[in-house]
Amino acid sequence: MLCKKLGALLGLGLLCTSLMAQDYPQKTVRLISPIPPGGAPDLIARAVGQRLAQVWSQSVVIENKVGSNGQLAAEFVARATPDGYTLLVGMDSLFVINPYLYKQSPLDVNKELIPIATLGANQFVLAINPNLPVKNFPEFIEYAKKTKPTLAYASGGNGSQHHLTMEMLKARANMDLLHVPYKGGTPATTATIGGETVAMFSGTANAALIKAGKLKAIAVSGAARSKLMPDIPTIAEFYPGFDNTIWIGLFAPRGTPDPIVQRLRRDVARVLASPELTEVFAGAGGIEPMITSVEEMQRLMKSDQAKYSKLIGDLKLKID
């Protein structure tokens, strides 16, 4: 008799959860961005949020919680009630770089947040100062190898993906470059334009500076050429297998009911498939919608964790 009652209660609980997912959302959904307005996660959050609001006939607001290289936003979402109303639009680095880079962290993001869906992907552009006496990527590699003193390159900071991508290239091309970390991509770009450094990996958001001739693009870091810059070769065309792209995903607090998680995944996939969204993403710096299954997203995270943990270990990078 007791077992029957427990079974009935369990069944009732599952029914209530399922009905809750059908009615979800019944109030405003908050998408938390870990960077200031204007960066890729924020642009993606606003574009996706606007269209989810249309699908749901419910308001979606974007909140920027900036600090600690994204950790502040991640911790805020992880500590939120796991009901689907507070979600993180987070960059991959939070999950595949930070855990290996920081000596101490108040949050284990890979245990306390669950992946909902990938949202968008972008690749880096290898940009150089236009006064450098090289015409293309192979000439740059040869010039860097023979020039003394060692040429300097800029990044948005120690352990940033700009930094780590260049270190990947250095290892693959068997060349040396001096790393000069700056506090963000903007000062790194300014330094490269001004000649303090000669090269950098940047997002395709710098396309306008490249078009204006202030920077010269010589290669992109993804597996395929950028739709925004189809004439620029991939590094993989010279070093087969080289591929380093960045991606942005949607995450929820652990414990979020599975029916709500599944509802989010369906609705996000529907929004990402919109041709209109593809155009919006392209106009925001060459971002491309990224639709994957949860299994594909999990495999991607594991692959990137293995790649970056090895690289960070090899470089002996640690940040307090």
Task: Set out the fold topology.
Layout: H1 2-23, E1 29-33, H2 40-56, E2 60-64, H3 71-78, E3 86-91, H4 93-96, H5 98-101, H6 109-112, E4 113-128, H7 137-146, E5 152-155, H8 161-173, E6 178-181, H9 185-194, E7 199-203, H10 207-211, E8 216-220, E9 245-253, H11 258-272, H12 275-283, E10 288-289, H13 294-315
Parallel strand pairs: 1-2, 1-3, 5-6, 5-7
Antiparallel strand pairs: 3-9, 4-7, 4-8, 4-9, 4-10
Helix pairs in contact: 2-11
Main sheet record: 10 strands, mixed
Q: Name the CATH class of the largest domain.
A: Alpha Beta
Here the CATH topology of the largest domain equals: D-Maltodextrin-Binding Protein, domain 2
Structurally, the number of domains stands at: 2
Structural class by secondary-structure content? alpha/beta
- Round the Cα radius of gyration to an integer and report it: 22 Å
Identify low-pLDDT runs.
Answer: none
Question: Could you spell the SSE succession in H and E letters?
Answer: HEHEHEHHHEHEHEHEHEEHHEH
**Mean pLDDT over the residues:** 91
**End-to-end separation:** 57 Å
Helical region count?
13
Tally of DSSP β-strands: 10
Strand content: 15-25%
Query: Could you state the CATH homologous superfamily of the largest domain?
Result: Bordetella uptake gene, domain 1
> Can you tell me the overall shape?
globular
Second CATH tier, the architecture of the largest domain: 3-Layer(aba) Sandwich
Fraction of residues in helix: 40-55%
Detailed description of the structure:
The chain has 13 helices and ten strands. The protein is an alpha/beta fold. Strand 1, helix 2 and strand 2 (60-64) form a beta-alpha-beta unit. The longest helix has 22 residues, at 2-23. The radius of gyration is 22 Å and the shape is globular. The mean pLDDT is 91.
